[in-house]
Design brief:
Distance between the termini: 90 Å
Order of helices and strands: HHHH
Largest sheet: none
InterPro entries: DUF1003
Number of strands: 0
Protein name: DUF1003 domain-containing protein
Keywords: Membrane, Transmembrane, Transmembrane helix
Amino acid sequence: MPQVPKLTILPEYDPEAFGRLSERIARFLGTGRFIVWMTAVIILWVLWNIWAPRELRFDPYPFIFLTLMLSLQASYAAPLILLAQNRQDQRDRVTHEQDREQNERSIADTEYLTREIAALRMGLGEVATRDWIRSELQDLLRDLGTGDGRRPGQPERTARPGAPGRPGVFPDRGGPGRDEGDR
């Protein structure tokens, strides 16, 4: 069952709208434009109350009313500035919390990737490479007694006269045992 709103003597307001308004005022109070306008108003106030005809002056020499207005402005400006700072602190706190959570996720991801890379390195240490297999085969062939990488009983292959490279490799024909018909 919905509750009946209570009657209150105090006016109700939207705290978020009031906070936005206070931030706008605080931003304006912190600008050079505000200082220039305030200085111009004070100078006009003082000049008017010194040189205007006596019956048009509203604040004679000690400028008590000007002092009261400046005090009133300061008494409202200080809480508005504090309210704006509190709102900014809350936003900064939320941003800081989100940054901290993002950093924690990044650290966790980095640690995971580090473990994966370490596992891949360990796995690659056990993989036979082409060079390792070649060296093992050559060692086996040497162990069988030829010493030059040939199988027992296989004649030694030689390159054609003037051909560079290893014996049995024919660079002009694309390798051992190839002729023009193999291409």
